[in-house]
Design brief:
Blueprint lengths: L6 E11 L8 E15 L4 E6 L2 H4 L6 H12 L7 E7 L9 H16 L6 H12 L3 H8 L2 E7 L2 E7 L6 E7 L5 H6 L7 H19 L3 H7 L6 H4 L5 H5 L8 E6 L6 E5 L5 H12 L5 E7 L9 E4 L2
Parallel strand pairs: 3-4
Antiparallel strand pairs: 1-2, 1-11, 2-4, 2-5, 5-6, 7-9, 7-10, 8-9
Helix pairs in contact: 2-3, 3-4, 3-5, 7-8
């Protein structure tokens, strides 16, 4: 991954990881995204629009720029100042893969502007090393439904194209949640019964996506490993799980570590009914926004381009 050009454009899709039973192992790409246009400049600058624009425009503590600088310095390349135009469509700290997108953006920018001869596989490995788990970064980088595992520091990915008819509704509460807080509530060990139940569900999950088996998705997304322990800090989850099996809703799960909830709907014509059911279930209890999305087959790897100016 190297190239020449006056500008560099990235589109990094949002992702939803875990999908219930696939804890730290599976994820799906969605079709709202972090979009960046970058060029070399005299000094660093960010002009941001979209969601959380104020946070995205900050130079200090910016994950994209920190990652960019660290990679260049580690590879003994000059840190070229960048002018970034950022259009952010991914809610921050909601479980929609915003950190994975930012990490991959920083790495990709360093590879390009530092003229590093990195393969797509090395970019993914670097993102995994920084993120700590492979699911979100693999889905963001490659698109589609992914199951990811790690071996000797390398990410191994099985990828399938999700059903074209299926849709997603990501239900985002007003209050965000730090992943570290969501991790802290998990137990140190689990019963054999719970582990076996999750193994059975996740074994069906990938095949349900590959074969468009909506009838299996509710079972496949059932979880005993993380969701029962996160219900108290993710109040949307117990309100929305009972909707599975009605109004075209095939499955529901925390999106990543939460607090947002991913709802999978069987087809676009049922989105209105599903949305109405969601609104009724949460009315007067949790204030939330519904983000409707297709399941994206394209990842950031396919949506990077030079722009001649």
């Amino acid at each position: 991954m190297s190239g020449e050009g006056n500008m560099w454009r990235l589109r990094l899709p949002a992702t939803s990881a875990n999908l219930g039973s696939g804890f730290d192992a599976v994820a799906i790409a969605l079709d709202f995204a972090l979009e960046i246009e970058a060029g070399s400049a005299e000094v660093f600058s960010i002009a941001a629009t979209g969601r959380n624009a104020e946070s995205c425009s900050r130079l200090e503590g910016n994950l994209i720029l920190e990652t960019y600088k660290q990679i260049l310095q580690a590879n003994e390349r000059p840190v070229v100042p960048l002018a970034l135009q950022v259009a952010n469509g991914i809610p921050l700290a909601m479980g929609c893969g915003s950190s994975a997108a930012a990490l991959l953006a920083g790495i990709s920018l360093a590879v390009h502007f530092g003229q590093l001869d990195w393969s797509a596989e090395r970019v993914l490995d670097e993102a995994y090393a920084r993120e700590g788990h492979p699911d979100n970064v693999a889905a963001c980088w490659l698109g589609g439904f992914v199951a990811a595992a790690c071996q000797d520091g390398h990410v191994k990915v099985a990828q399938v194209k999700p059903p074209e008819d299926w849709r997603a509704i990501v239900v985002c509460p007003a209050a965000s949640l730090a992943t570290s807080k969501a991790r802290a509530v998990l137990p140190a060990c689990y019963t054999l019964k719970d582990v076996v139940a999750n193994l059975q569900s996740v074994s069906v999950l990938g095949l349900a996506f590959q074969q468009a088996r909506g009838d299996l998705l509710g079972l496949a997304m059932k979880d005993r490993i993380h969701q029962p322990y996160r219900e108290n800090i993710c109040p949307l989850l117990p309100l929305l799980l009972p909707l599975v099996g009605s109004n075209g809703i095939l499955g529901a799960a925390l999106s990543g570590a939460g607090p947002a909830v991913l709802i999978v709907v069987d087809k676009g014509s049922n989105l209105a009914a599903a949305s109405s059911a969601i609104e009724k279930a949460i009315f007067g209890r949790v204030q939330a926004e519904q983000v409707v999305s297709r399941l994206s087959t394209a990842g950031a790897k396919q949506m990077i381009e030079n722009i001649a100016r």
